[in-house]
Design brief:
Length: 299
């Protein structure tokens, strides 16, 4: 039986999905994936070569704003026809509702204990000069989370379900299945391998290929950063898996008020995360750095 060449097009989820597919079915050869946020116009020739080699193309949705014309989903459908399988971008804030990027016009994205991710609650509490005790009380308060983040969570779920509707395969049902027993996301754009492996099984079924192998996992590919799960959020949004009281990030190195490296990877209790975040912000942020900040995503 000839091997099936499969090309995965997407963000940081593309490579782990390809890995899952290759382990679940030995008849599949995964071509080097196309990572959409790294591609430039000068890559067009390579893109065309890979599309020509592919028996199956699995692509996350790429709308009209994407900068490479040939990879926009509507154009891929015309070019690849039945070879194309469109999947949603697996993005959901429900399991880390206050996690954001924070950008400053002066220094760009601000670094935190979670690399480029921040707890908006912790950051806002720091700017308001609240006590750590008060912050911890808020983070453990179900009604605080409902008041501050319920609308954003609802909108994020709605947006993912819309992406499901516009795709050949759905993923929200997979996320809900995983969330019955375990944490389905490490950050809003980094799903667990259990989510990715179940989606990969759906992909194989869709292209009429069987699951003949098992996924051998040494470590979670997208769990370099593990956002904290706070008691209040778990209660507010009905997390059914057992919430942990720790997160995984880094201990940045600071010199003269500037971060010179993100430092060593570090496991922090939720309380340590709050304390160390306050200390890091005290050392590195002040004055004009805090003007006109941009928080993303908005839901």
């Amino acid at each position: 039986m000839s091997k099936l060449n499969v090309l995965v097009i997407g963000n940081c989820q593309a490579r782990p999905i390809g890995h899952c597919l290759s382990q679940l079915n030995s008849n599949i050869t995964i071509l080097e994936p196309l990572i959409v946020h790294l591609l430039q116009q000068c890559d067009i020739e390579v893109i065309q070569q890979k599309l020509a080699l592919a028996d199956v193309v699995i692509s996350q949705q790429l709308n009209d704003s994407y900068h490479i014309e040939i990879l926009k989903t509507k154009n891929l459908r015309q070019q690849m026809g039945s070879k194309l399988v469109v999947i949603p971008n697996i993005f959901l804030t429900k399991f880390c509702p206050d996690l954001v990027y924070i950008s400053s016009p002066e220094i760009g994205r601000i670094t935190s204990m979670l690399d480029i991710y921040h707890s908006r609650t912790v950051f806002n509490s720091w700017t308001s000069k609240e006590s750590i005790e008060n912050v911890v009380n808020k983070l453990n308060d179900k009604y605080f989370w409902l008041e501050q983040y319920e609308n954003e969570v609802i909108k994020s779920v709605d947006e993912l379900q819309k992406r499901d509707t516009n795709s050949d395969l759905t993923v929200y049902d997979v996320i809900e299945q995983v969330a019955e027993k375990s944490k389905p996301f490490y950050t809003f754009n980094h799903p667990s391998n259990e989510v990715l492996s179940l989606l990969s099984k759906k992909i194989l079924s869709y292209i009429n290929e069987s699951c003949t192998g098992r996924i051998k996992l040494i470590k979670e590919p997208l769990a370099v950063i593990v956002a904290p799960t706070f008691t209040g959020a778990a209660s507010a949004f009905d997390y059914r898996y057992e919430a942990t009281n720790y997160c995984v990030g880094f201990q940045p190195k600071v010199s003269d008020g500037k971060i010179i490296s993100k430092g060593i990877r570090k496991v922090l209790s939720n309380l340590e995360f709050v304390k160390y975040s306050f200390e890091l912000y005290d050392k590195t942020l002040s004055g004009s750095t805090l003007l006109n900040l941009r928080f993303t995503p908005s839901y």
